[in-house]
Amino acid sequence: MRKKTSTGLILGLLSASLIITPCYAATTQSKISAEQGEQKENEKQLNDAQGRIKSLESKKNNLEEYLTELNNQLSELGENLQDIQSQSDARQEELAELETQLGEAQKKEEEQYSKMKLRIQYMYENSNSSYITLFLEAKDLSEFLSQAENMSQMTKYDRKMLEEYKKTTAEIKEKEESIKKEQEKLKKLHKESLEKQDEISSVMKSTRSQMEEYETQISAEKDTTKALLNKINVQSDKINALIKQEKDEEAAQSQKPSVQTPKPDNTAKPENTTKPENKPAPEESKPETPQKPENNNNNSQENEDQNASGEKYLGKFKITAYCNGSCCSGHSSGLTASGTVPVQGRTVAMNGIPFGTKLKINGSVYTVEDRGVPYGHVDIYFESHEDAMEFGRMYADVYQVN
In the chain, what is the greatest distance between 2 CA atoms, to the nearest angstrom? Predict the structure, then answer.
């Protein structure tokens, strides 16, 4: 009766220990799920913030292009203003020269008019005596006629010169008026260009102000993304730690039956030794006593071998492969996250475990030198992408070599 009670108690404790361990695993899994849910929400917020940054940067780039166009227009206006000013200066010089020419032409016109007027007045007042004097002084009629013709031609010449001077004066005045009108047009263009410059400068000022506002918003969104990235990284570390804890619990659970099975035999041993009635029956006691120590020795020897080998069972992990190319999101520098040069047959990647940790997988020992996959997932490095793809995916027991 006592033996049955002890055996039942031990079996109950063993069952409780086996039940408690999955409870711990379930609790760990719920924590992992909760952290993953929060991380997923943070990743969604991160994607939204990155989308807003992309939209703001697109708007900012459009404003930069518009600002460049406005700068080009402002430069063209500046060149036009210089051209207008050059034309206005040239017209002013022409106008000054025309005014000089006009003054000279008017002076000559007045002089010619005065000379002609004096001659006409003289001829009118002394016409009779002049012709009598010419007639008397002339040697003959032909000389008289010739001198009379000369006087007539002189009068015609005077009139002709007077008309030419008047015509020159009129042309100069007409040209002067044309230049003045052109100057008015240039002044108008100059004024319009200045107004256009002011308008563009105002638009450029508002554009720069809008760009500064976008830059402020982009900076704020980048701060948000930085904070979210920090949260996500912290959550990734926490999730990796929880996955490691879960794997350790699974590994401990898989080892418990082999460790605890000898306990019923050890507890039963004193009962057999204390009962004198069992001594006359050696056939029944002999098979029990040697068997129990043998099991204990085997288990202890098994644990001693495991400790001696320096290997710690981590659990059954997912095993994949990768290369250092862009197709596998490799580092552009060609180095691992730990700064080493990856080597096929040595380098593996996994989060949640220190760099330099040795892992034994299917009899081969690798070194953790890279990141990129969560704890419980080992990524083995291959030099070529084809070999990595050919490796595929598997699940294997992983041991940590101390």
Answer: 205
- Cα–Cα distances (Å) from 271 to 6, 260, 294, 391, in that order, read 10, 19, 18, 57
Element (H, E) at 267: helix 262-274
Q: Which residues, at least 6 apart from 259, have a Cβ–Cβ distance to it below 8 Å?
A: 299, 303
Here the tokens at position 160 are: 């002709």
**d(C-alpha 138, C-alpha 146), whole Å:** 10
CA–CA gap between residue 66 and residue 71 (Å, rounded): 9
Residue 188, both tokens: 């108008």
List CB contacts of 232: < 8 A, sequence separation 6 or more: 39, 42, 43, 46
Structure tokens at 280: 């006359």
User: What's the pLDDT at 240?
Assistant: 85
157-168 pLDDT tens trace: 767 777 777 777
pLDDT in tens, 72-122: 988 888 888 888 888 888 878 887 887 787 777 777 767 766 766 666 655
Backbone φ and ψ of 398, nearest 5°: -120, 135
Alpha carbons 28 and 7: distance in angstroms, whole number:
32
Output Rg (C-alpha) for the chain, integer angstroms: 57
**Which of 143, 140, 162, 163 lies closest to 151, judged by CA?**
143
C-alpha 109 chain-centroid distance: 79
Scan for tokens 């890279």, then name that residue.
370
